Structure formats: structure tokens, C-alpha cells
Amino acid sequence: MYDYIVVGAGIVGLATAYHLKRLSPQASILVIDKSSGPGGGDTGRSAAAFRAFFTNRANMLLAKSSIEFYRRVQESGFDLGMRFIGYLWLIDEGARPRVEAALRHADRLGLPYERIEPQVIAERLGAQVEVASVEGAEEAGFRDISEGILVKEAGILDPDRLVDYYYRRLLDMGVTFSFNSRVEEFILEPRRPLGIEGEPLPWQDIRVSGVRVAGGKELRARRKVIAALGAWSEGALRVIGVDSASKPKKRQVFVVKASTEALRRLLYTRGFNGEGVLPFTILPRDVFIRPEPREEAFWVGLSDNMGRPFELEEPPVPEESYYTLGVHPVLTTYLPQFSERYPDTAWAGHYDISPDGLPVVYEPYESDLIVACGTSGSGIMKGDAIGRVAASLTLGMEEAELADGSSIPVSWLGIQGRMSERELLII
């Protein structure tokens, strides 16, 4: 028997447990996960980039405060591999109207960014900014790059080191972990049991009192259970009639080594940041390139929206054809250095996607179950703040205090009272 049980030891589960223990130091907390250690799900498969450049105020607050927390951790001497290399969007003519609308909104919010001329992009990156002469570009609908948008308060970090930070701190705080514990079901019980066969009955006041793991062992929570299951949320919760308001979708990352002189020059591009490396770069059609200087490589991917079903693949397997047919044509059109270069390795994971791209944190039916999911691919960059919101909701607080001193109503991530501003800067 514990006061609280957190199901899931990814970034959201770890951050929730950490802030729950911080706010309620006398509480007993158990974190369980089906993996053999923390971060064994999609957190460890993340591209682990961060930015606070959002148009939805909730997204901006979550990301900005989480980045500030990570910065303080790094400056305290715990190396998170945090590097402020920036984000660079390369905008083509077709995307200009949508991007201009987003930038007008960013201007109203006071978000800093820098416009980069096409010729500067061509010179620094060796990029092809005029693609009309590139074979197949016109037929594919690829258009010239009209400008770049550089956001400097952004970058990359190491997801394994971030997981390690929370895990070590939680152990020091006395939080208990149970790994290799797959949840078979959530235990439902009436608040006032009557000893009637078939309880809980539909007319009774039902709460989630714990979980049953593989092998039949029951783990009980006196107060609340927090489901921080990421891409597994929908499947695990729908069987008890709870809507996670999120769905899993496969994502893939391909690693291309900087094995040629042209690719090494691209990796160590100068002029955009103090690190002397390529910023996290988003090409037209949403192909992204994340530099990984420690490996002298690039992590490359593409977030497809239409076409791929919402489904959980276990284990998720990267698809060679997805790179050759989906990523490679865009990549080589704008950055010819990648021509004839194919992945040295690859991996796959999932996003748990909410309809509006905003995380979901709420308590359904006053059931003592807290649902925390729907990070939509930004679990790392917003993870600390999501954990603060989930911990605050667990303790019955209406607002969560964030790392930068700001606060956010917990209802903004809920189902009712949700922050409904449209996010214009979804990657």
C-alpha cells in the first residue's frame, strides 16, 4: 500500500513523481514500469530537442519553464548534454502565408526570432535555395526557399541524462521503483463497499484504487493513481471507460554519419550559434535534421500526419522505404550533401498525439485516477512543467507553480477549461 502510484517511468511519470514528492515529502510513492529501467519507452527514443517558440500560451509556458529548469540543473553541475544551438526553419514559398500568420502572433507575444536571407542560407549551409533546376523538384511540388527563421533560445539535450537526473533524485528522496512490472489492469472499487457480489456496481461511486501487474500481484494506492503511459495510454485506459484524449502514432529517426567533407562542413556550420554547429533545422515538408556532434552524425526524420494510422506498434521498427521514399527526396533537394548517403542506423518510437497538440492532464469522473499524456512529440521539452501540473492536480491544487516563477491553471491542460488557443507552430 502506497499513498500514490505512478504508472510509467518516462519523462512525464518521473517528473510527476519528483514534484509530487517535493510538494508532499511525507507521502509514499511507487513508480512502476514494464521496462527494465527508467526511460525505457519512447522517452529514450526521443530526438530530444527543445524550444519555447510557441503561439499557444500554455505550450509556451510549459516549454519555457521546463527549459529554465533544465538549464539550472545543467549549471548546477549535472550534465544534461544541453546545447543551445537554436532552431532554424527553412520556409518555402508555399508555406509563407501560414508562417507569416504565426510570426505576427509571435510578435504580439514578444517572442524573439531572426529572419535569414536565402543567400545567407545558401552560403552557410551549402543549401540549394532555388530548386527549379533540380531534377524532379517541380513535379514533386518542391518550391524555392524564401527565407529562414532562426530561434536562438532552443536546442538539444540528452534524453538518457535527463532521465538519469530525475531517477537519481527520486531514489535520494525515498521514492520506490518497480521495473519489469507490466500493468494488466487498473483496479476499480467502490468508495463505500457493501459486500455485494459484482462490486463495483454501475450506481456506486467508483475509484481507481491501484493496479494489478503481470503475475497477479496487486499494488494499492491510498490516495491516487497517476497514469503517465504515453503512447500506451489509449489502450490501457479505454478498457475501464476512460478517454486518454490521445492516440499513438509511429515516428522514426534515421542516423546519417557525417562521413564526407561536405557533411562535416554542414555539421559544423558557423554563424548561427556559439556552439559552431548546425541548428536543429526544419526543411520544407517538415523534414528535420538534428545535429549530434558527439557522434559526428545527423538525426533525420519526418513527422507524417495524413497517411499513417493511429496505432501502437510493438516493438516499433524503422522502415528503410520511409527514408528512401519519404525523407531522402526532400533532404537531397535542399541539401545536396546528402545525395548518395543513407542511414547508418535507425530507430522508431511513438508520439502520443492529442487533437490540439497540447498535453492532457485531468482526473476523469473524480475517480482518483490522474491521466497525464498527449505530449504530441514534445514530452522532453515540456516534461518538467507537465510533471508539475500533474502533481498539483493530484494534490487538489488549482494552479501549478512552474520553474521560472510563473504559474499555470491546471485546468488549461484538462478537458474542461482547456486552453483553446490554436497552436500555429506545430512541427
For the largest beta-sheet, the strand count, sense and barrel status come to: 8 strands, mixed
How far apart, in Å, are the first and last alpha carbons? 42 Å
Structural class computed from helices and strand pairing = alpha+beta
Mean pLDDT: 95
Radius of gyration, in angstroms, nearest whole number: 22 Å
Low-confidence stretches: none
Principal-axes geometry comes out as: elongated
Annotation field: number of helices: 10
Approximately how much helix is present in the residues? Answer: 25-40%
Number of β-strand runs: 20
Please state roughly what percent of the residues sit in beta strands, choosing from under 5%, 5-15%, 15-25%, 25-35%, 35-45% or over 45%. Answer: 25-35%
* SSE order: EHEEHEHEHHEEHEEEEHEHEEEHEEEHEE
Protein architecture, described:
This protein has 427 residues and is an alpha+beta fold. Helices cover 27% and strands 26% of the residues. The longest helix has 19 residues, at 57-75. It starts with a strand and ends in an 18-residue tail after the last strand. The model has no long low-confidence stretch (mean pLDDT 95).
Brief overview:
The protein is an alpha+beta fold and 427 residues long. Helix content is 27%, strand content 26%.
Main attributes?
427 residues; eight-stranded mixed beta sheet; 10 helices; alpha+beta; 26% strand
Write the layout of secondary structure elements.
Blueprint: E1 2-7, H1 11-23, E2 29-32, E3 49-51, H2 57-75, E4 87-92, H3 96-109, E5 114-116, H4 118-125, H5 137-140, E6 145-151, E7 154-156, H6 159-172, E8 176-178, E9 183-190, E10 206-213, E11 218-227, H7 233-238, E12 247-257, H8 261-267, E13 280-282, E14 287-292, E15 297-302, H9 320-334, E16 345-353, E17 360-362, E18 369-373, H10 379-394, E19 399-401, E20 407-409
Parallel strand pairs: 1-2, 1-11, 2-8, 4-13, 11-18
Antiparallel strand pairs: 3-7, 4-6, 5-6, 9-10, 10-11, 12-15, 12-16, 13-14, 14-15, 17-18, 19-20
Helix pairs in contact: 1-6, 1-10, 2-10
